[in-house]
Structure formats: C-alpha cells, structure tokens
Write a structure and sequence with these properties.
Largest sheet: 5 strands, parallel
CATH superfamily of the largest domain: SPOUT methyltransferase, trefoil knot domain
Distance between the termini: 53 Å
Helix content: 25-40%
Shape: elongated
Strand content: 5-15%
Structural class: alpha/beta
Number of domains: 2
CATH architecture of the largest domain: 3-Layer(aba) Sandwich
Bound molecules: S-adenosylmethionine
Length: 249
C-alpha cells in the first residue's frame, strides 16, 4: 500500500514511519508512507499557502490553488479510484469498518489542513472525502492523519505477527477486547483471576469471551445493540451479568 500525505509539516511523519508497528511495516516494504511538502506548491517568492478569509473574521484559510495543483500532480501517479481523504472535524467519524475498508486499498491520499481550514473550492474540485477522528478540534490534520495511518497499517495482512494479531482487538468483531494480566501474580494485594492459571484452555477461552461481551455491555452498550449474539455469546453475557449483580449486591 502507498499512502501519500499532503502537509505543510512533512517532518512530523517520522513519528509514524520511524517507530513501532508502522515503522516495521515501512522497513518490510508492506507500506510506503510519502509525505508531500505542500510548501513547494506555494505561491510567490515566499511560497505562500494561506490568506485572510473573505468576509472577515479571525484566522487564515489555506489557498485552494496549491492544493488543487498538488493533488492533481499526485493523481497522475495514483490509480483513479485512490481516495483523497481530507482529515477534518466536520467529516464522518472514522470507525473500524472504514479502517478495514482502507486497509484493503493499494493507495490513498491524505490531506492535512491547518489554520481555519481549506478554501472549500479546493475540496469541491478534488472531490475529497472528509473524515474526522472525533468530535473535538486539533490544530492540524497531521496528527489525525497519523492516527488513521496507524490504524490502517496494523490491519494490513502480515504487519502484525500471529502473536500480535489484531483479530482479538476491540471493535474487530463488534465487541471490546477482554481484559489482560501479566506477571507478577500479585500487585499491591490484587490477584489475577484463578482461571488464567488453570491451564484449562477451554475455560480460559470462555472466560475471555465472557469478559469481552460483559465489558461491551458495561462500557459500550451501543455496540451490543448493533450485534447479533450467537447462543454461546448470549450465555456468556448472561453469566457475566449474574456475576456482576452478585458482586454489586
Ligand atoms: C484548527 S483546525 C480547523 C477547524 C475548523 N475551523 C472547524 O472548526 O471545523 C485545522 C485542521 O486540523 C484538522 N483537524 C482538526 N480537528 C480534526 C478532527 N477532529 N479530525 C480530523 N482532522 C481534524 C483539519 O485538517 C483542519 O483543517
């Protein structure tokens, strides 16, 4: 997969390309991440990229023409169906389904805004899809693009080893992940659930399923509303709820 990122701060992307899971995927040629310096498309001697908003008001707006030109140049190198995604607080909130869809694509172009945002005509001309990382505003699209890149890249087959498979991660099957424990067995008087030391793989599998469904019920009931539970999952939820009620009593 090739991910091109249009930004005024290309250096920021070392934070994803040089570290951790995404860094290894880049090293192993499973993905290439190519920041494109928008400044080189800027206007005049000072490579200007912004101007005051028509109609007045605070802040600056990113110029349409450098963005249209830059995306046009990238489009010549990418397939026609490569999406152009403008990271924007006004876009659709990204979820696991979007990430899964993007991870199957061979190319995508990300566009990072700054200041008050981008002249609307640029977005109309390039046909950008707007995606948000949440209902809050950050200062630029770069961090949002990095969030998207990290989430997409970890879904690309071969990026995570078997030990780290994303198949158990929260949201993958519409549920939250189970809880986890590691050594030592006792921390400040807190023990771990005995079943995890039992060596009984079937009992451990069922306990994890119960935790996963139970925590989804407790913390994200909205997810459960959208999910069909099979017989075993329904039983695991009932067991969790009974244990939970006993603990609360
Ligand atoms: C300061 S913000 C502009 C916010 C804009 N004035 C508004 O209120 O909708 C600058 C840039 O940060 C990025 N950005 C801010 N919040 C975001 C979010 N929640 N998701 C994705 N990108 C975001 C966008 O690229 C945006 O153009």
């Amino acid at each position: 997969m090739r991910i091109s990122v249009v930004t005024i701060f290309p250096q920021m992307f070392h934070a994803v390309t040089d570290y951790g899971v995404v860094g290894r995927a880049v090293e192993n040629n499973l993905v290439s991440i190519e920041p494109v310096d928008l400044r080189s498309f800027g206007q005049g001697q000072y490579k200007r990229l912004d101007d005051r908003p028509f109609g007045g008001g605070p802040g600056m707006v990113m110029l349409a023409e450098p963005i249209v030109e830059c995306i046009g140049r990238l489009r010549q190198k990418t397939k026609d169906d490569a999406p152009v995604i403008y990271l924007s607080p006004q876009g659709k909130r990204v979820d696991h389904q979007d990430i899964s869809k993007f991870s199957k694509m061979s190319e995508m172009i990300l566009l990072c805004g700054r200041y008050e945002g981008i002249d609307q005509r640029a977005l109309d001309i390039i046909g950008a899809e707007e995606l948000s990382i949440g209902d809050y505003v950050i200062s630029g699209g770069e961090l949002a693009a990095m969030v998207l890149i990290d989430a997409v890249v970890r879904q690309i087959p071969g990026v995570l080893g078997n030990e780290q498979s994303s198949s158990q991660d929260s949201f993958t099957d519409g549920l939250l992940d189970c809880i986890h424990y590691t050594r030592p067995k006792l921390v400040a008087g807190h023990e771990i659930p005995a079943v995890l030391l039992s060596g009984d793989h079937e009992a451990i599998r069922y306990w994890r399923l119960k935790q996963s469904i139970g925590r989804t019920w407790l913390l994200r009931p909205d997810l459960l509303e959208q999910k069909y539970l099979n017989k075993e999952q329904q039983q695991a939820l009932t067991d969790f709820q009974e244990e939970f009620e006993k603990e609360q009593a």
